[in-house]
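subagent[fold] <- orchestrator: predict structure for attached chain, return tokens only, no commentary.
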Amino acid sequence: MHPPLDRPHPDCQDVIKALKECHRHTFKKFTGGCNRQKNELDTCFVQEKERALKEMNKDWLEKKRVEDEALKWAFGRTETFEEYLARDKGYQRELAKKSRQQQQQP
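subagent[fold] -> orchestrator:
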């Protein structure tokens, strides 16, 4: 399955056109004659998604830092949630217990 072809896919327009052209021949569509175009389309969509995710997450660390600062201010805490969990003895015990259970499983 692939996403709808009628929405914009700027990186994959040529491949979409090739697949649509192949699908015009009903016989090819149902007998695997368009598999090459479909595989190229899938590859193109994967690359398009990776590029979009890189673009969206390029400043992720900065956003996380700003969010952590806002949470510290909002809750009056001077530590991050990760620092709190590192100090929490109950959480650490459960984490160690889960780790031991995973090591015992084959």
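orchestrator: received. Logging for downstream: The chain has six helices and no strands. The radius of gyration is 24 Å.
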